[in-house]
Amino acid sequence: MKKIVAGVILVLFFGCQDNDVRVSTDFTGNETVYALQAGSVYPISGTATFKEKKDGSTVVVVTLSGTEGDIQHPVHLHLGNVGSPDAAVAALLTSVTGSTGKSETTLTMLADETVVTYADLISLGACIKVHLAESGPERDIILAAGNIGSSMSAKSS
């Protein structure tokens, strides 16, 4: 009986382990990290990490410090650099949750339904902006922002 119980415990233990090897093989190893600077009076900054997956998609992970609470902060990929007024939205990313400061989006196409790869994204003249709110006057308050791709050489204001 003890052998059966021990066998069941071993099966349950090893069967419940995370399979990190499988997860890590989903990615090609290509990764680019961009800095996100405070965009207003709020002391919020962080990074946007672009990770290439073998299936052709790109995982965009936004990590911020200084956020709090249950509020969801919208994240947009805008065409042009951070200083471009009224820059068109190229893609809507998953909102950052205030309590964690994190957002993760798998991106395969832009808002205009153009298929986009990792190589396309890291060469795109664009920026990421994290907004305080989805609508109303607080929508125009940028918590954090940063240039990506070819906009990295552009001056931000």
Explain the layout of strands and helices:
Layout: H1 2-15, H2 20-24, E1 27-38, E2 45-53, E3 58-65, E4 72-79, E5 89-97, E6 102-107, H3 118-123, E7 126-131, E8 142-148
Antiparallel strand pairs: 1-2, 1-8, 2-3, 3-6, 4-5, 4-7, 7-8
Core attributes:
157 residues; alpha+beta; 8-stranded antiparallel β-sheet; 3 helices; globular
How would you describe this protein?
- The chain has 157 residues and is α+β, with helices and mostly antiparallel strands.
- The chain has helices at residues 2-15, 20-24, 118-123, and strands spanning 27-38, 45-53, 58-65, 72-79, 89-97, 102-107, 126-131, 142-148.
- The chain has an eight-stranded antiparallel beta sheet.
- The radius of gyration is 20 Å and the shape is globular.
- Residues 5-13 and 18-22 have low confidence and may be disordered.
Number of strands: 8
The low-confidence parts are 5-13, 18-22
Along the chain, the helix and strand elements come as HHEEEEEEHEE
Going by helix content, strand content and strand pairing, the class is alpha+beta
Alpha carbon gap, first and last residue: 72 Å
**Mean pLDDT value:** 86
Query: Percent range for helical residues?
Result: 10-25%
List the total number of helices.
3
Q: Provide the β-strand percentage band.
A: 35-45%
Trace the largest sheet across and list its strands: 5-4-7-8-1-2-3-6
Cα shape: globular
Overall radius of gyration: 20 Å
Largest beta-sheet details: 8 strands, antiparallel
